[in-house]
Amino acid sequence: MPSFVPVxxxxxxxxxxMQNDHQLVQEAEEAFRTVCEQDAEIQLAARDAERVQLQxxxxxxxxxxxxxxxxxxxxxxxxx
Length: 80
Hints:
Strand content: under 5%
Order of helices and strands: H
Helix content: over 70%
Distance between the termini: 97 Å
Number of helices: 1
C-alpha cells in the first residue's frame, strides 16, 4: 500500500533538494574557475621558464660559441 506525504512536506523536500543541487552547481562552477585560473598560471610560468631557458642558451652561445671545437686547425679536425 502506498504511503502519501502531505503536499506541503513534499514541496518543502523538493525545494530543499533544489537548493542543495543549486549549491552543488555553484561549488562545481567555483572549482572549475579555480582550476582554469591555476592552469593559466601554470602555462604562463612554463612560457616564462622557456623564455629564460632560450635566453640562457643564447648567452651561452655568445660566450662559448656554437659548441663546435674551434681550437683545432682544420687539417687535424678529422683526427680529434
